[in-house]
Amino acid sequence: MNREWILLHLKEAHEELARIIEECELRNDYDTGEYLVSMMHLYNHLNTAWNSREASSENVRNCSEEDFSDWRKFPSDIDMSVP
User: Fold this and answer.
1) Distances (CA, A) of 49 to 30, 43, 58
2) What does the alpha-carbon distance between residue 7 and residue 60 come to, in Å, rounded to a whole number?
3) Which of 18, 77, 32 is nearest to 51 (CA)?
4) CA 17, CA 42: separation in Å to the nearest integer?
5) Where do the domains of the chain lie?
6) Is 14 within 8 Å of 49 (Cβ atoms)?
7) What is the pLDDT of residues 10-66, one digit of tens each?
8) pLDDT tens, 65-81?
9) Can you tell me the distance from the alpha carbon of 44 to that of 40, in angstroms, rounded to the nearest whole number?
10) pLDDT over 80 at 8, yes or no
11) Distance (Å, whole) CA 32 – CA 34
């Protein structure tokens, strides 16, 4: 597991989630468009943290467009129906 890479993305996700919460708490004009962009950013980092968890440091440094695209997708190996 590439802990350094995972932590980078989890910290980015954490910052984005904190920002979303703050915007929702403080701004009455925070709209769906802004929320959508923020959630896309959040999921990008969460999905990448999971999907690329086994990527080597070399693979991370030299990732292809295909890797980048695959890592950003919602994980296919997590069953969200499990209670």
Assistant:
1) 27, 10, 16
2) 13
3) 77
4) 7
5) 3-72
6) no
7) 999 999 999 999 999 999 999 999 999 999 999 999 999 999 999 999 999 999 999
8) 999 999 999 999 998 88
9) 6
10) yes
11) 6
Query: What value does the CA radius of gyration of the chain take, rounded to a whole number of Å?
Result: 15
Q: What is the pLDDT of residue 68?
A: 94
The answer to whether 23 touches 30, Cβ cutoff 8 Å, is yes
Task: Give the DSSP H/E element, type plus range, for residue 40.
Answer: helix 32-51
- What is the C-alpha separation between 4 and 25, in angstroms, rounded? 32
**Dihedral sign of CA atoms 32, 23, 78, 49 in order:** positive
pTM: 0.90
